[in-house]
Write a structure and sequence with these properties.
The protein has 484 residues and is of the alpha+beta class. It is 40% helix and 20% strand. The protein has 3 domains: 3-292, no CATH class; 300-417, no CATH class; 425-481, Arc Repressor Mutant, subunit A. It binds adenosine-5'-diphosphate, magnesium ion and zinc ion.
């Protein structure tokens, strides 16, 4: 039985590191990196006799995220201890939330292959990150534990098993990541692990009325790995079912080198976490005033922004989606449009440049918008030079490339590189005359009806003017001389 006879079912658990300056239960820095164990104190080291105190910013960010995703916000939620032993967890438990998480319900709207899907959320809760085991840190091959990350605040965002394909899972993650970044609660960095996900995957025969047994896959720090891991897992599970075997509920680890998942622990031996309410922290109270204030401060989110770009500016769904996928890019576009003009024509022209050349250069250089030397004002200036026919299309691309690399003023680049277009009729006329004189045979064929040769003449004149001839002037002169 082929894979196509099976329905894939996926539920995702996302861990998003919150962009607070200090940790969730102490004042230590959350900065990434740093000398091992340099951002620690008795609280996040888990020494006896200390008391945690809750970072107010964590609560606000959880509420902001919950409101943006349409969750119910609990006015009273509680922390719980999740007990397990691991070297990177000196306390012997993780302070998390269990029975009464701060947010419940909600959804993420995603567009997959043109179709709109609503992926329901189960819950969002606050918790602390654990430390990190580091291997081979000394000559004798010993391992060490770095607790800089211990106590860094996380949101765990749990989806219902609503995802029905790998494409949907990837789109859900991308959408969620963009929203968190818009909200300023997460930096979206998969490599550094500040946005990471565990995928719960099961398969069932199409039309079945019960879900299959799921496996949870950990350790995917890129969208590509997620895709590979889920694809592998689906094939593995379908293979088992086809062979009349059972899928065992277990946690599996993705190995990027081999492109496969392998068993880490089965649910039978899995932990009974013995959750119980955290006695050292009082319940978290979220007063209605806090909810109202955070709601009033919510930024415009990607989908709303895309709708505005389509409705007010007349952009295509495709252009709008590209522009809003990153908040900094959308803000750059807004600022550049304000500097350049208004109305659908200006917006369309600007969007083309943003999604075309600017995106290409940014990709090529691997630069985030915050690092761009191109400013909205400079991009607007390049488009104005183009509109005024001071430079042509190829010239504009050259100017953009230079401004992107150096941050120079566009007008300066045009002067320094001699990119200004020749619109001076006299100079172009001389080139036209020379080209026509040298192409007597083509001129004859053109006059005899082969109008396609116009392209040839334009090309020759452009060559003669080193690409700087204003195409409109070139065309007009050629037509005149050829007697049209
Ligand atoms: P656990 O505590 O073991 O992680 P949860 O009930 O919290 O279990 O579920 C975790 C995730 O598993 C959720 O995202 C949920 O959507 C997903 N899930 C549950 N059942 C299935 C299934 N049959 N197939 C795929 N995903 C599932
Ligand atoms: Mg889980
Ligand atoms: Zn600390």
């Amino acid at each position: 039985m082929p894979v196509s006879d099976f329905q894939v079912v996926i539920g995702l658990e996302v861990h998003a590191q919150l962009l607070t300056r200090s940790k969730i239960f102490c004042g230590c820095s959350t900065e990434f990196g740093g000398e091992p164990n340099s951002h620690v104190c008795p609280v996040c080291l888990g020494l006896p006799g200390v008391l945690p105190w809750l970072n107010q910013k964590v609560v606000e960010m959880a509420v902001r995220t919950g409101l943006a995703l349409g969750c119910r916000i609990r006015d009273r939620s509680v922390f719980a201890r999740k007990n397990y032993f691991y070297p990177d967890l000196p306390k012997g438990y993780q302070t998390s939330q269990y029975e009464a998480p701060i947010c419940e319900g909600g959804e993420v709207e995603v567009t997959v292959g043109g179709a709109e899907r609503r992926i329901r959320l189960t819950r969002i809760h606050m918790e602390e990150d654990a430390g990190k085991n580091v291997h081979d840190v000394s000559p004798d091959g010993a391992s060490g534990v770095d607790l800089n990350r211990a106590g860094v605040p996380l949101l765990e965002i749990v989806s219902e098993p609503d995802l029905r394909s790998i494409d949907e899972a990837v789109e859900y993650l991308k959408t969620l990541r963009a929203i968190l970044m818009y909200l300023g609660v997460n930096d979206g960095n998969l490599q550094e692990g500040s946005f990471r996900c565990d995928a719960n995957v099961s398969v069932m025969r199409k039309g079945a009325d019960r879900y299959g047994t799921r496996c949870e896959i950990k350790n995917m720090n890129s969208f590509r790995f997620l895709r590979q891991a889920v694809e592998y897992e689906v094939r593995r599970q379908v293979g088992l079912v086809e062979d009349g075997k059972q899928v065992v509920q277990e946690t599996r680890l993705f190995d990027p080198d081999r492109g496969e998942t392998r068993s880490m622990r089965s649910k039978e031996e899995a932990h009974d976490y013995r959750y119980f309410p955290e006695p050292d922290l009082p319940p978290v109270l979220v007063p209605p005033e806090l909810v109202a204030r955070v709601r009033a401060e919510l930024p415009e989110l990607p989908r709303a922004r895309a709708a505005r770009y389509q409705g007010d500016l007349g952009l295509s769904a495709y252009d709008a989606a590209l522009l809003v996928s990153e908040r900094a890019v959308a803000e750059f576009f807004d600022a550049a449009l304000a500097a350049y003009g208004s109305g659908p024509e200006a917006a369309k022209r600007l969007a083309n440049w943003m999604n075309g050349e600017v995106a290409r250069l940014a990709n090529e250089r691997g630069e985030a918008p915050s690092a761009w030397k191109l400013t909205p004002a400079r991009l607007a200036e390049i488009l104005r030079l183009l509109d005024a026919q001071t430079i042509g299309g190829p010239g504009a691309k050259a100017v953009l490339e230079e401004v992107f690399a150096t941050g120079a003023e566009p007008g300066e680049v045009v002067r320094a590189k001699g990119l200004a277009q020749v619109s001076d009729t006299g100079a172009i006329e001389a080139a036209v005359d020379a080209v026509l004189a040298a192409s007597a045979a083509e001129v004859e064929r053109y006059r005899a009806g082969n109008k396609k040769l116009m392209g040839f003449f334009v090309g020759q004149v452009m060559k003669a003017t080193k690409g700087k001839g204003n195409p409109a002037v070139v065309n007009a002169l050629l037509k005149k001389k050829l007697g049209e």
